[in-house]
Design goal:
The chain has 68 residues and is mainly α. It has one domain. Helix content is 49%, strand content 0%. The protein contains 3 helices and no strands. Helix 1 packs antiparallel against helix 2. The chain is elongated, with a radius of gyration of 20 Å. The relative contact order is 0.08.
Length: 68
């Protein structure tokens, strides 16, 4: 079903916006997959983030050591 999409952006020249405007999935995919490979983003790697909070610096150091 045809429709209308309005995108508000500060970066209209961004390749994602341009590919969306042209409805060019192939160009978007090829550009994005190369970028993800170069930056070692998924699906070319796994990403994990751990946060450790404490007012005791030694406790934080020990916790980080256990994770690594």
């Amino acid at each position: 079903m045809p429709g209308k999409v309005i995108i508000q952006t500060y970066s209209p020249e961004n390749f994602c916006i341009q590919c969306s405007k042209k409805q060019n999935y192939d160009e978007f995919y090829e550009t994005e997959i190369l970028l993800r490979k170069q930056l070692k983003y998924p699906p070319f790697c796994d990403i994990i983030m751990c946060a450790i909070n404490s007012s005791d610096k030694e406790e934080v150091r020990k916790s980080i050591t256990k994770i690594i």
